[in-house]
């Protein structure tokens, strides 16, 4: 991800200034966030940048939007289908979204101050999916084969490029396709690719659907966790995909945290209210996708390298995680 210049950030901040002032007036009129009794007609728009319609970000985002629309007067939350992590961060940087999901490894060591964290929400597990008839049984077997590395602008693409570099599988050795999750599944079914990568919380619905009608294998990537950690010690961890998730042989793979992130210029009362509902409605969010149920206030504050938004920090201080 290429960082947006600080000059452009300052210009956007000035452009957003008038909007933020209006948001503050509206928020002060919201029950529980201010002292005014009348409810103005203006609405606060919250665009949530997610990912593919069959991936975890989208399911989580849809459920979160439902909660926000129901419980925050004057708020209209809506979900955006995107290429996921890197694209989501850019949408926040340019003021085209208010909330979004991103993998931690997408973020630079010196992140753009236009984007702050709300919470660490769950871990993404890297899937390398192929068919049971495929000769691809290890990462090294991808040499000379057609492989989808994720949509352009996705967190999957960033993780996979680091992984392939660590394995010395450069562009000349792997025929890369940049396809989103749904297109990757369709291309594997048609035999147009030999395998695809996708990074997501368990279970990834599109992979589960594929496993029900197509004999597939997920390649074990656990041995590559340490090589990836050498350059990113605070990001990558080793996680298991048990047999119970997809009904196929269990594997160990590389995982990294996911964050819910927010534009830095959103008012503190609004972000505090969003953070409260994110934590207090975990069971409802988990009904949309089990990954959401793994959140906790104590774990949520670990969002390096992003600092927490002041509204989120205020909630966590008050809840004493």
UniProtKB/TrEMBL annotation:
<protein>
    <submittedName>
        <fullName>TAXI family TRAP transporter solute-binding subunit</fullName>
    </submittedName>
</protein>
<dbReference type="Pfam" id="PF16868">
    <property type="entry name" value="NMT1_3"/>
</dbReference>
<dbReference type="InterPro" id="IPR011852">
    <property type="entry name" value="TRAP_TAXI"/>
</dbReference>
